[in-house]
């Protein structure tokens, strides 16, 4: 069965011991095979689960952990204790394991066979206490891990497993990610700065700078044939006035934007970068700040951060990858302006760069004047975001650690059409309300840029943060400002360890 992340695997490893004899171990192996087949048959599990057999000795456990470390397609392990597996056997393997693991606390049978149950059954089906023994050693070794409890056929178990698998995919993606920076951070801005070495140690991604001259050379080398082909794609993909391709002056602007898209994509692929930043303060050699070009690159999965915001660029790509195949999109976003009239709302947008994956309807392609930095007419997609629950995610550098701030929001349809707003946007009501959410976000140090997503869950982001060992705070309907501020203080003490 093809999975969304079919090229990656989670290794399923069963714990037992030789104490119970070959007949029990044969049953353990057969039961494990059936559980793996069941997980792979579940539509909601997006990663292939690979059965790596039963480990019964310290050497076998160490060997499978070392093998997982060295397999680039293995993003983590799922560990299950079918019988009692003395946990000292796991110390050598777990202390060397550098992949995340999920502890699946299940048992093969769902209901107890009341009329037939005997000690043979009890000895075979003793996950209830075998997993507790294993759980102790994880806690004793101070290893962060996911624990999923429930029968392996339950849909909620499948969803919990998949949420963790997507977090592990995000961690794996970050460890291989390269972010290309065209120009520096916006001058005098604090929150988009940060320590790139610390980020590479924590998240794994590289942040590399490239001169605008290098990019403009690639942009200028784009062929006319490729430009014309892309213009045809624009015409069929979006609502647009035909004059954009028939009027000579307007078509010139469209050609410039097509060159930027093709050139940037070619350059990013040439340096193996899946995320990028630029800044309107440094466009030397380019015709304009890329608008439509950046939106479409985000639509293809590239991460983006405005004004040199490399942390948000990286996280945009990571969240896009974690949300692959799920309904809803993910975009670079900014809290732009408030509606304090009636229920407090936030109108999110940016100068040009909002990803069409979040659009409620087919976007309009139009050309409007850009008035920040460069004064010129730029093609861009205009749309409103799809209504429904969403998340805003901000990664900030606090010097001694990184913090992830997450606000759950309820996106709504704008009450009017916003006929004079020439940029894509989303209107949302922050949970629990704008007053509390705005204060909590500011107390936490959240950036004005964020990753906006309707494709990932808080649980997946929590798993992601836990695997990486970073602080995470959530602003939602349960947020009490006094308690939230105390949580920040407590976290400050915890991360001073």
From TrEMBL:
The L-arabinose isomerase central domain covers: 178-325
Top EC class, one word = isomerase
- The residues covered by the L-arabinose isomerase N-terminal domain are 9-172
Q: Which residues form the L-arabinose isomerase C-terminal domain?
A: 329-471
The cofactor remark states:
Binds 1 Mn(2+) ion per subunit.
Q: Which InterPro entries match?
A: Ara_Isoase_C, AraA_central, AraA_N, AraA_N_sf, Fuc/Ara_isomerase_C, Fucose_isomerase_N/cen_sf, Lara_isomerase
Q: Which GO terms describe its molecular function?
A: L-arabinose isomerase activity; manganese ion binding
**Which amino acid positions bind Mn(2+), per UniProt?**
307, 334, 350, 449
Keyword rRNA-binding set for record: no
Q: Which UniProt keywords apply?
A: Arabinose catabolism, Carbohydrate metabolism, Isomerase, Manganese, Metal-binding
EC number(s) per UniProt? 5.3.1.4
Q: Which Pfam families match?
A: AraA_central, AraA_N, Arabinose_Iso_C
* Named cofactor requirement(s): Mn(2+)
Please name the GO terms of the biological process aspect recorded for this protein, alphabetically.
Answer: L-arabinose catabolic process to D-xylulose 5-phosphate
* Substrates-to-products reaction catalysed: beta-L-arabinopyranose = L-ribulose
Q: Report the SUPFAM superfamilies cross-referenced here.
A: FucI/AraA C-terminal domain-like, FucI/AraA N-terminal and middle domains
Q: In which pathway does it act?
A: Carbohydrate degradation; L-arabinose degradation via L-ribulose; D-xylulose 5-phosphate from L-arabinose (bacterial route): step 1/3
Annotated Gene Ontology cellular component terms? cytosol
UniProt record similarity statement: Belongs to the arabinose isomerase family.
**NCBIfam families noted in UniProt:** PRK02929.1
Q: What does this protein do?
A: Catalyzes the conversion of L-arabinose to L-ribulose.
This chain's protein is named L-arabinose isomerase
- What organism does the record attribute this protein to? Vibrio sinensis
């Amino acid at each position: 069965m093809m999975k969304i992340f079919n090229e990656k695997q989670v290794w399923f490893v069963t714990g037992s011991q030789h104490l119970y004899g070959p007949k029990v171990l044969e049953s353990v192996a057969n039961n494990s095979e059936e559980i793996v087949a069941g997980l792979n048959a579940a539509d909601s599990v997006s990663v292939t689960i690979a059965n790596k057999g039963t480990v019964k000795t310290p050497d076998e456990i160490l060997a499978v952990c070392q093998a997982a470390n060295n397999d680039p397609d293995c993003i983590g392990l799922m560990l299950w204790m079918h019988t009692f597996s003395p946990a000292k056997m796991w110390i050598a393997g777990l202390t060397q394991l550098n992949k995340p693991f999920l502890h699946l606390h299940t048992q093969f049978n769902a209901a107890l066979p009341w009329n037939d149950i005997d000690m043979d059954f009890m000895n075979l089906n003793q996950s209830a206490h075998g997993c507790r023994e294993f759980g102790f050693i994880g806690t004793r070794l101070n290893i962060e891990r996911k624990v999923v409890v429930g029968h392996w056929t339950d849909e909620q178990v499948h969803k919990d497993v998949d949420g963790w698998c997507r977090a592990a995919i995000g961690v794996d993606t970050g460890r291989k990610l390269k972010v290309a920076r065209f120009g520096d951070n916006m001058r005098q801005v604090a929150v988009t700065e940060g320590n790139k070495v610390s980020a590479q140690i924590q998240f794994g991604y590289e942040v590399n700078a490239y001169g605008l001259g290098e990019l403009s050379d690639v942009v200028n080398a784009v062929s006319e044939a490729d430009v014309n082909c892309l213009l045809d794609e624009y015409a069929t993909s979006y609502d647009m006035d035909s004059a954009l391709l028939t009027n000579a002056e307007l078509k010139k602007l469209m050609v410039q934007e097509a060159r930027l898209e093709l050139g940037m994509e070619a350059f990013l692929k040439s340096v193996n970068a899946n995320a990028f930043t630029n800044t309107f303060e440094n466009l030397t050699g380019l015709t304009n700040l890329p608008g439509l070009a950046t939106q479409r690159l985000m639509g293809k999965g590239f991460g983006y951060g405005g004004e040199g915001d490399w942390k948000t660029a990286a996280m945009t790509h990571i969240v896009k990858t974690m949300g692959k195949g799920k309904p809803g999109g993910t975009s670079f976003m900014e809290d732009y302006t408030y509606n304090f009239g009636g229920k407090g709302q936030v109108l999110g947008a940016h100068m040009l760069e909002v990803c069409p994956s979040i659009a409620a309807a087919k976007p309009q392609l139009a050309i409007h004047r850009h008035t920040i930095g460069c004064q010129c007419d730029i093609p861009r997609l205009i749309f409103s975001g799809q209504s429904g629950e969403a998340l805003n995610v901000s990664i900030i550098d606090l010097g001694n650690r990184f913090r992830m701030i997450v606000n759950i929001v309820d996106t709504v349809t704008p009450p009017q059409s916003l006929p004079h707003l020439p940029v894509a946007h989303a209107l949302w009501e922050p949970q629990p309300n704008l007053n509390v959410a705005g204060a909590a976000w500011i107390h936490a140090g959240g950036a004005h840029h964020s990753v906006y997503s309707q494709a990932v869950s808080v649980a997946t982001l929590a798993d992601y943060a836990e695997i990486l060992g970073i602080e995470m705070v959530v602003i939602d309907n349960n947020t009490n400002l006094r308690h939230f501020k105390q949580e920040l203080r407590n976290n400050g003490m915890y991360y001073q360890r």
